Each structure stands twice: as structure tokens, then as C-alpha cells.
Amino acid sequence: MAWTENNERILLEGLAQNKREAIETIYNQHYKMVQTLVLNNSGTIEDAKDIFQEAIIVLFEKTRSGTFVLNCLIKTYVYSVSRRLWLKRLQQQQKFGPELNGAEDAISVDEDLEVHEQRNAEFLLMEKAMAGLGEPCKSLLEYYYLQKKSMVEIAADFGYTNADNAKNQKYKCLMRLKKIFFDQYTNTRSDARNHNA
Amino acid sequence: MQETIMLDTIERYIRGEMLPEERVFFEQLRKSNPDVDQMVVEHTIFLNQMNKYGERRTLKNSLEEIHNKLFESGAIKASEGVKVVRLWKKYKRVIAVAASIAGLTALSISGLLSHISPKADNKSVEQLSRKVSILEIQQKNLNKTLAQKIDEDKSPKVIPEIAAKLGGTGFLIDGKGWIITNAHVVENANSVSVQNNKGQEFSARIVYVDHLSDLAFLKITDDNFKPYYTLPYGISKSSGDLGEQLFTLGYPRDEIVYGEGYMSAKTGFAGDTLACQIAVAANPGNSGGPVLNKNGEVIGILSTRQVQAQGVVFAIKSKNIFRTVESIRSDSSKMDSTFNNLKIPTNSSIKGMDRIQQIKKIEDCIFIVKSY
To answer: Of A64, A90, A106, which residue sits at a domain end?
Structure first.
């Protein structure tokens, strides 16, 4: 038991750091369970993949939140989240039966899913903002902020004569992105607040 | 240039890359300059969002790659076992129902076969004609005087004094006095008469008997009978639908009796396609009575019931009336010239009326058929 707990802790730490090995282990251990769940409840292989991957993202977000405590096995958590996600999708497709076959609520994941919804919205917002930015801005900002490349490297890659030029260009791109993003972001935020009120 | 330097500074501050002295200086600037503070807050949010976006994108890519890798290596697969389980789970109720229906059908068929095969059909099915319940002794006595009486007096009033052998129901198929009933109602009859619900009796003659379809055509020959210009009901050429609500009127006793039911099968006894099965209470005497649907269309003629089953009654489909008439007309040897003016109505004028009104219209056209 202690061995399992330890193992699970290592896996979760690995997931939190986006480590390929940990993710692959979790994937290998738990995917089939979710696939069975989804297939047994009028879903397809594609659905199963979507649901499982989203459940892993939920778990990932949970590990990344500062106050992370997982009171159950990864298996139980992934199962509960997948079940809820699939139920929701069925409801959206109006295919909702009275109950999912062989699927009982193991643990409550309502709060986590609420957080996940918000994150989802933010992610889509940024994705949309980035897509709306166009090239070379998109790649330039991705190189700098996501791949953490230095301005010197970027200048070389993008053919700027020096890092300062690249920096100027990056500044302009960033200001545009921030404008697109915050225009929407404040809207969704106030929406969320109104909704909560 | 000023702005890029400012942004650079803010980013270094957020990332914690500043030297302690620089950091103290910058924090003082934040306190004294709300604009700078605002920029820091905003940029912190933005970078945080950017990071989350990047992390999730990385994770998504990893998941996608892992999925493909595991699928290719066969570690995970769209296993067929799951499919079967899925189909089984999905359809197990249907399969169970199908299996039980199959079982029941097999049982009932073998039961039915063993039930009917050793015996003659007519033992399983009872004709619904009525033996008129006048004591046989009385009948014998009356028989002696029968010949005389008929000779003496041709008026129909005499006939009721004679005991009828069999009784059934018949109904008009033409207002001029054409009545249809079952062949078995008038079987071996020397003469027939019909009586309406008011107790008036009219003499009639048997124009044609078709034993195959169990239909008999009678014609009222009595001068007292006043022809109907139109009939309230029509005779349907279609067979009706399974489950269709039906009603009957007939004379299982000397009073007209109403019955309600539904079509329970589209074939009659032992798959007889000339007939259909209806669920209705029927008794001897109902034979030859009309089976009507809610629109007041005659869809059948009540004929027999299954002896050992309750509520299993068979009716001859009304389209047989048309078929029989056609065959009579096309065959000159069978042809009776009176058939020339037979016109069978197909339209019902009582469609949409409530049942009580329909019955009031119909009951005058339904007769007790008495055969002697």
C-alpha cells in the first residue's frame, strides 16, 4: 500500500511538471477503464480519447494548484472526472439516459470541474487571441514566452539584425496580443462574477 | 524605446530576476506611481495566463503523442471485447424480450398444434349461431302442423308460431332488403325470416349461400318491409388495422346487444386469411352480425369463436362480400337475376358521430335471422 501511495505521488509530481514519462504511465494505466466506460455508454473511441485526455488535464490542473491534495487513487479520480465529463457531453447531445451503465459516483469532483471550466474558457481565449495575432507575431511570442528562447536566438531565427530590433518587434506584438486578450478576458471575468452573484 | 525598457523591467521583476537593490527601487516606484503598479498587475495576470496556456498546450501535445504511441504499440486498443460487452449491455433487454417471445411463441405454436391436430377444426371453433331455446317437445308437436299452416296462411305472422331451428344475426347490405349473414346460420333451412329490433318479422328467401366463405345472401320478400333509401354504414373493402377499436351489434338473445373490442389478429382461425380475429364478447346468436370500426364502416361479419379460449372471436372480412358478389356475377351458372340490382354501399354517413347516435342509426338495419 505504501508502495502504491509513493508511486502515485511520484506520478502526480511528474504530471505537475509535465513530464512525459509520468504522463505516459498514467495514460497506460487508466485509459482502458475510461474507454470501456465511454464505449459502454453510447460513445466512440474518439469520444473516449477526448474524455480521458480532458480528465488528465483536470488532474494536471489540480496538481498545479497550490493547495493540491489528492485523497484518493489516481484511478478513482480519473474515473470520477471522466464519468462526469461524459455525462455532461451526453446531456449536451441530448442522449442522456437515466444513468450511465456501470458507473457510480466514486468521489465528488464538482469543484474541480468548475475550476476546469474556467481554465478551459481562459485557454480557449488565449488560443483565439494567438490565432488572431497572425505571423510573425504568433511565433515570435511563442518562442519567447512559451519556449523561453532568448532574444538573441529569436533575432537569429527571425532574421532581425539584432536583439533590440527583435525586442521592439516583440513589444509591438505583445501589446496587440494583450489588447485582444484583455478585451475578452475582462468580459468573461465580469460574466463569471455576474453569474456567481 | 522607453516602453520596451519598461516592459523588460516589469518582466524581470515578475520573474524575480532583479538584484535586491533594484527590486527595492522598483517596489518604491510601484507604490508612488499607480500607472506602473497597474501595468505590473496586468502583466502578471497576462504572463500567468500565457504560462497556463503554454503548459496546457504542451500537455495536450504530449497526450496526443502518447495516445498514438500506445495505440501503435498495441498497449491500448479499441478492444473488441469492449464492443461486444457494449452491444450486449445495450441490447440485453431487447434480446431478453426477443428470447422470451420466441420461447412463448414456440410453446404456444406447439401447444396449438397438439391441440388442434388430432381433432377436427370444427371442434375448436364454435359457430355462433343460436339454437333457439324452445323445447324440443314443443317443436315436435309444432312440426306436425307446420305444413298445413304454411299452406293455409302465407302471411309472415304465422311463422313466429313455428319454432326456428337456428338463429343468428344479419344486417342490410342494400336498403332494398338485402341481408347478409353466415352460411351456417341458414344451414339446412327450409325457410328463413328476419326480425328487426322492434319485433317486426319479415319473410325472406335465401338467394345465395357460399359455404367456403361462410356467407349467405338473403332478400326480404315481405311486402311489409319498407326499403331504406340509404344505409347509415358502409361496407369496407379494406381489412382494418391491428388494434383498431371495433364494435358489434347482434342478437345473442331476442334483444339487440352491443359489444366492444379490438382487432387482435389479421387472420382468423389457423391462419385463415379470409377472416380476422377480434377480441370481443360474443355468444351464440351473434353469428352474422356486423363488426364495425369507429367510423361506422363494416369491416367484418362475426362468425365463429374458439371454444377453449375466452374472447377469441373470428370475423369474416367484409371484402369477402364484394368478392363473393363478383364471383356470382361472373359465373352465369350461379347467377341469380336479383343480384343485378344489388348495390353495396361503401360510404358511412355516421362517421364522427358519438357511439350512441351511431347505434341508433344502425340498429334498425340489423335483424335476427331465423331459419326453419
So the answer is: A106
> Average pLDDT over chain B, rounded to whole?
79
- The better pLDDT of the pair A16, B322 is held by B322
Question: Does residue A114 carry a pLDDT above 90?
Answer: no
Q: Rounded to whole angstroms, how far apart are CA atoms B181 and B247?
A: 17
pLDDT tens for residues B108-161?
877 777 666 544 445 566 676 666 554 555 565 556 556 555 555 444 443 334
The answer to whether B287 is a known catalytic residue is yes
Judged by CB atoms closer than 8 Å, whether chains meet at B62 and A31 is answered as no
Q: Note whether B371 and B194 are within 8 A (CB).
A: no
Cβ–Cβ of B66/A23 closer than 8 Å? yes
Reported ipTM exceeds the 0.95 cut: no
- Nearest Cα neighbor of B12 from B353, B350, B261, B4 is B4
Burial class (CB in 10 A: 0-12, 13-18, 19+), B110: exposed
CATH of the domain at A88: 1.10.1740
Same domain for A99 and A120? no
A95 interface with B at CB cutoff 8 Å: no
> Domain of A143?
111-196
CA nearest to B68 within chain A: A49
User: How confident is the model over A14-26, as pLDDT tens digits?
Assistant: 888 888 888 888 8
pLDDT computed for residue B180 by the predictor: 94
Q: Which of A49, A57, A174 sits opposite B67 (nearest CB)?
A: A49
Indicate yes or no: CB of A36 within 8 angstroms of CB of B82. Answer: yes
Q: Is B43 designated active site? A: no
Domain that holds residue B164: 130-371
- Please tell me whether residues A102 and A120 are part of one structural domain: no
Say if pTM beats, i.e. exceeds, 0.90. no
Mean of the pLDDT values across residues A169-197?
A: 71
Least confident of A153-162, B46-55, B121-130: B121-130
For residue A57, which residues of chain B lie inside 8 Å, CB to CB? 56, 59-60, 63
Nearest chain A residue (CA) to B83: A39
Place of cell 317437445: B137
Residues B134 and B53 in one domain: no
Task: Identify from A174, A177, A180, A184 which residue to disrupt to test chain B contact, counting B C-beta atoms within 10 A and taking the largest count.
Answer: A174
**Is residue A136 reached through a cis peptide bond, with omega within 30 degrees of 0 on the bond before it?**
yes
Q: Burial code of B190-200, b = ≥16 C-beta within 10 A, e = fewer? A: ebbbbbbbeee
The number of distinct structural domains making up chain A is 2
B184 is catalytic: yes
- As a whole number of angstroms, the longest Cα–Cα distance in chain A is 65
